Amino acid sequence: GESVGLHLPTLSVQEGDNSIINCAYSNSASDYFIWYKQESGKGPQFIIDIRSNMDKRQGQRVTVLLNKTVKHLSLQIAATQPGDSAVYFCAETQSNTGNQFYFGTGTSLTVIP
Amino acid sequence: GAVVSQHPSRVICKSGTSVKIECRSLDFQATTMFWYRQFPKQSLMLMATSNEGSKATYEQGVEKDKFLINHASLTLSTLTVTSAHPEDSSFYICSAGYRGSPLHFGNGTRLTVT
After folding, report:
1. CA atoms A1, B80, A88, A65: torsion sign
2. Chain A contact set for B102 (CB, 8 A)
3. What is the pLDDT of residues B60-112, one digit of tens each?
4. What gap in Å lies between CA A49 and CA A35, rounded to an integer?
């Protein structure tokens, strides 16, 4: 695999504030990236994706930034809500070699009401 | 959107027995499915790529004889944990998706080996 599982870093934010979650990816040949949200006891849910020909993509309340130079992704969540509390993972893949996605370490987000 | 169903959601078995986990793509045909393993408070680790009609491709360090994968149809892949031991206790998650598109995940199987 391309990522090593480590214990999750944590982030706590006040409800209504913006959250920024960061991810460093490992393969410079990766060209497609996804942010997933995982709630306890469930599988990951798709949030937003970005391809390597872009450096920013916006969704509803979420924005993903990609910096290929330093192999860094970030997920920005605007006006964070209690329902956003979960673990967030970035995942990377080389789209021309199959659909294997490799996951980053993850960040546990807790929203304080 | 694509739906992936995984069964069972929880299983408890005794050491030395084998456990089969099923993964189904409900509304699309998946020539490829993926099996992940997740320990508590850790990330998802890709175990293997399940290929319809052919052998699975395993990630480095994953024992092929321990984790048997069968992908007999375009909508079903199974993972069998053979001769399970307590260290095999984990959360196993399958996924499927079209190439170049997001993977869709099942809700996982919590395996506990006693």
Report:
1. positive
2. 34, 46, 49
3. 999 999 999 999 888 999 999 999 999 999 999 999 987 778 889 999 999 99
4. 6
